[in-house]
């Protein structure tokens, strides 16, 4: 990492009242997703109403953390100055076994080895004392 990149703060999530349980769980290295009690749909991103049936009766559920690469790109030029020391890196949409899709990074592998439908599992990156990011890596089983 260059000295310049090290001095530029990395953009971090700012949890809202709706997303706070997701980020608190990530800090514990748990992946929680909302689920609708009325129609059982899994929901991501966090929100107030079920996008399937409109119900506000939502709960937070632990999910498997397993999924597959739905789409991806390899960033060879940093998409933010703070990421300059990280190129090349993979920006991906991962489809969880439970259905929802998350925008994330694929880590712990050669970026050029990533493929559509590749099985992946959740991996947490501890950024600072309060924030952990939800990443994915190639599935180990
Ligand atoms: Zn619903």
Describe the structure.
With 141 residues, the chain is mainly beta. 9% of the residues lie in helices and 36% in strands. The chain has two helices and eight strands; from the N terminus they run ααββββββββ. Strands 6-5-4-7-8 form a five-stranded antiparallel β-sheet. A three-stranded antiparallel β-sheet has the order 2-1-3. Strand 7 (119-126) and strand 8 form a beta hairpin. The longest helix is centred in the N-terminal third of the chain and has 8 residues, at 20-27. The mean pLDDT is 94. The structure holds zinc ion. The site of zinc ion has 8 residues, from loops. Residues 36, 38-39, 41, 50, 52-53, 55 line the site of zinc ion.
Q: Could you spell the SSE succession in H and E letters?
A: HHEEEEEEEE
Largest sheet features: 5 strands, antiparallel
Structural class: mainly beta
Taking all Cα atoms into account, the compactness measure Rg is 16 Å
Bound molecules: zinc ion
């Amino acid at each position: 990492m260059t000295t310049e990149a090290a001095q530029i703060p990395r953009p971090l999530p700012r949890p809202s009242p709706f997303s706070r349980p997701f980020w608190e769980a990530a800090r514990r290295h748990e992946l929680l997703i909302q689920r609708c009690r009325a129609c059982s749909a899994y929901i991501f991103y966090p929100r107030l109403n079920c996008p399937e049936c409109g119900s506000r009766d939502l709960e937070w559920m632990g999910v498997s953390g397993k999924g597959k690469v739905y789409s991806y790109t390899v960033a060879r030029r940093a998409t933010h100055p703070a990421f300059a020391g990280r190129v090349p890196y993979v920006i991906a949409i991962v489809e969880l076994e439970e259905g929802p899709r998350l925008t994330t990074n694929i880590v712990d592998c050669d970026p050029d080895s990533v493929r559509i439908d590749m099985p992946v599992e959740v991996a947490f990156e501890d950024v600072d004392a309060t924030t952990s990011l939800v990443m994915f890596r190639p599935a180990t089983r």
